[in-house]
What does this fold into?
Amino acid sequence: VYYAPGDVLELGSYHGLSTTILAKANRAAGNRRHIVSVDLMPEYVDITQNTLRSQGLEQNVSNVCDDAVHAVQSFVDAGRTFGFVFVDHSHAYTPVYEVCRRLGPIVVPGGFCLFHDFNDPRNRDEQNDSYGVYQAVVAGMDPTQFEFWGTYGCTALYRRIS
It folds into this structure.
């Protein structure tokens, strides 16, 4: 976020831990970016707002209650772009895949997408339908628009190239 070439989108805030990390990096960079945090659950949006407020990090952060796929499609339709996207709204294949297929128009060239739980071992369990992040990202990220930059902990980093 500190070096992001544009605003920041977070898909899936839960209780606001990742939102707080994003906001701290943004504050350290002089609050140059606007952060949009999206979560499907209204109670998680409220918890995230309270977490940010309790740490004085609510500046330049918008918390939105929406489905991630719907939110991303809305940004596509509006021509809204981001320099960094953190994807952690679901562990299931279809919701992650559907977001991946829509990222091209909203990520600026040189921008990054970071996928949480990419390396989670539950992705390899064919009996576990609730996990499929790895498979969804590999199948969903367009190699003509994004290049894989590596795994970092449990995440995968992709960069928009065109």
Observations:
- The first strand starts at residue 8 and ends at 11.
- The mean pLDDT is 96.
- The CA atoms of residues 92 and 129 lie 7 Å apart.
